[in-house]
């Protein structure tokens, strides 16, 4: 299998001075694919512990070359009825393989 690697760097919203949270992803594709894939749409869901994420994050997604990849973030689930503590975050972006 070949893959496109991506690192998601989410800027923290609490506490001040906390290090960015990094999440590594590997997007796998079948070995029988004979050509590179360009800008394939990817959607990935992330789950956060209660209280860790209180608003949509700033940050960036970078590919295995360190190039920033545009993305959209959407909260799809919350820990509370008032929608103040995000439980599930959906990220959408385009991935390419080497």
Choose one word for the global shape.
Answer: elongated
Radius of gyration: 15 Å
The helix-strand sequence is EEEEEEE
Poorly predicted runs are: 11-15
Quickly count the domains: 1
Strand order of the largest sheet: 2-1-4-5
Overall structural class, as computed from helix and strand content, comes to mainly beta
Quantity of strands, as a count:
7
Concise overview:
The protein is mainly β and 98 residues long. It has strands at 2-10, 21-29, 40-47, 59-63, 68-69, 71-78, 86-95. It is elongated and about 50 Å long.
Explain what the structure shows.
The structure is a single chain. This protein is mainly beta. It has one domain (2-95). It is built from no helices and seven strands. A four-stranded antiparallel β-sheet has the order 2-1-4-5, with no helix packed on it. A three-stranded antiparallel β-sheet has the order 3-7-6, with no helix packed on it. It starts with a strand and ends with a strand. Residues 11-15 have low confidence and may be disordered.
Secondary structure blueprint with pairings:
Blueprint: E1 2-10, E2 21-29, E3 40-47, E4 59-63, E5 68-69, E6 71-78, E7 86-95
Antiparallel strand pairs: 1-2, 1-4, 3-7, 4-5, 6-7
Key phrases:
single chain; mainly beta; three-stranded antiparallel β-sheet; 0% helix
